[in-house]
């Protein structure tokens, strides 16, 4: 779900085409599992179907730009304020949401961090109650599972503390959409470059 919401949040900054969205996503979320450009276009089709984006015209390079709709803007901004429990996919939803919010002009990353911290503290209280209730030696699977959730919540809290400290240190500023794309050119390099390489 974080990819869908992330693309909407980026489109809230301005129209983009698919490869540009992929580049913006990677630039704003740092390292992690690479985002397949096919996934970007499939997600854009679904967002268009759901009325959250509209397909615009093509530019002089043939890139079809997508624009966010008012419903899409509302959904993107709501996601940037929410502190829902992260999904269980390969992508780290918490890290994706927080790092993306830190780069988007207008996103309130401090409030987002506070909300995630409060959610994680509530999660820890529930987990600790579960560990106390599962103190029976016969209930080892429940204890092991709760122990894993406890470790993950504590690690997420420590990471949020680190993020907050880094953003407080500065210099830090959100940044606008990049006008350039790092899309590789097709075909042979220009003659001057190929001659210089020899």
From TrEMBL:
InterPro entries in alphabetical order: Tscrpt_reg_PadR_C (IPR018309), Tscrpt_reg_PadR_N (IPR005149), WH-like_DNA-bd_sf (IPR036388), WH_DNA-bd_sf (IPR036390)
Domain Transcription regulator PadR N-terminal: 7-77
Coiled-coil regions listed: none
Residue ranges, annotated region (Disordered): 171-198
Domain Transcription regulator PadR C-terminal: 91-167
Pfam families in alphabetical order: PadR (PF03551), Vir_act_alpha_C (PF10400)
Annotated Gene3D superfamilies: Winged helix-like DNA-binding domain superfamily/Winged helix DNA-binding domain
UniProt-listed PANTHER family: NEGATIVE TRANSCRIPTION REGULATOR PADR, TRANSCRIPTIONAL REGULATOR YQJI
Protein known as: PadR family transcriptional regulator
């Amino acid at each position: 779900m974080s990819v869908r919401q992330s693309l909407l949040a980026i489109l809230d900054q301005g129209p983009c085409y698919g490869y540009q969205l992929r580049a913006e996503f990677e630039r704003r979320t740092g390292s992690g599992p690479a985002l397949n450009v096919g996934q970007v276009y499939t997600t854009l089709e679904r967002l268009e179907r759901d009325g959250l984006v509209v397909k615009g015209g093509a530019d002089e390079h043939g890139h079809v730009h997508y624009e966010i709709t008012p419903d899409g803007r509302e959904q993107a901004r709501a996601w940037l304020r929410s502190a829902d429990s992260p999904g269980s996919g390969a992508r780290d939803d918490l890290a994706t949401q927080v790092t993306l919010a830190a780069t988007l002009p207008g996103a309130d990353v401090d409030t987002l961090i506070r909300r995630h911290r409060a959610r994680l503290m509530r999660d820890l209280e529930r987990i600790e109650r579960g560990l106390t209730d599962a103190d029976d030696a016969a209930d080892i699977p429940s204890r092991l599972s709760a122990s894993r959730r406890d470790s993950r919540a504590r690690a997420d809290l420590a990471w949020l503390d680190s993020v907050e400290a880094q953003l407080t240190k500065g210099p830090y500023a959100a940044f606008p959409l990049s006008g350039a794309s790092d899309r590789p050119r097709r075909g042979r390099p220009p003659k001057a470059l190929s001659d210089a390489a020899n």
